[in-house]
Amino acid sequence: MTAGERTPPLHTPAMWVTAAVTFAIWLGHAVLARLVASRLPERFPVHFNFAGEPDRWASRGDAEWYLTVVIGGVLALGLTAFGLVFHRVPLRFVNLPGKQRLLALAPERRLPVLRVAAWLLVLLGLLVATTFASTQYLMYRTAVTGRVEPSIFAALVLEFAALVGLVAGATIAMRRRLRRALGGPP
């Protein structure tokens, strides 16, 4: 298999379950955003500064309320779909740690490394879906109660930490698997 050829499918049943959960979170987010839109006050926050205070506002009836749903959906579902079809992307278009060494391997020896990359994309989609839904919840709670709840910021910090940990962990796992595939120490 050359650098331009495709690899065998990388997705697993667990990836499909994760994709379904991501879609369910996004769909639930979209439905709830639509259901609560009529309960919003005339003016509601759409952005917060680092102190947790609203610093940009929108008006009820604006499409801006749904912007979080749309952007979150495009990113989350796009990443998830990309992870599921990652095997169809020619390797010359893939940017991974140790790409040149990866391309030198036989196709079957590349699979463990590429499977980690596919999982990374699927899990990033899940994380993006939950982050955008959490952000929308923060906007809604602040709009209806008139105050910012610190607990939601704790959730957002945890989601950000999970993002950093996921990318770092996947990078380490890909490098280890590549070393193992090349016949080096794990």
Describe this structure in words.
It is built from five helices and two strands. It has 186 residues and is mostly helical. The chain has one domain. It has a two-stranded antiparallel ribbon. The chain is elongated and about 60 Å long.
Give a quick set of tags describing it.
single chain, 186 residues, mainly alpha, two-stranded antiparallel ribbon, 65% helix
Strand content: 5-15%
Rg from Cα: 20 Å
Q: Give the CA-CA distance, first to last residue.
A: 25 Å
Helix fraction?
Answer: 55-70%
Would you tell me the overall average pLDDT? Answer: 87
Figure out the total of helices. 5
The biggest beta sheet is recorded as:
2 strands, antiparallel
Order of helices and strands: HEEHHHH
The strand count comes to 2
Oligomer: single chain
Uncertain ranges: none
In total, how many domains does the architecture comprise?
1
Strand order of the largest sheet: 1-2
Helix/strand structural class: mainly alpha
Globular, elongated, flat, extended or rod-shaped: what is the shape? elongated
In short:
The protein has helices spanning 13-36, 64-84, 99-103, 107-145, 150-181, and strands at residues 43-48, 54-59. It has 186 residues and is mainly alpha-helical.
What's the topology here?
Layout: H1 13-36, E1 43-48, E2 54-59, H2 64-84, H3 99-103, H4 107-145, H5 150-181
Antiparallel strand pairs: 1-2
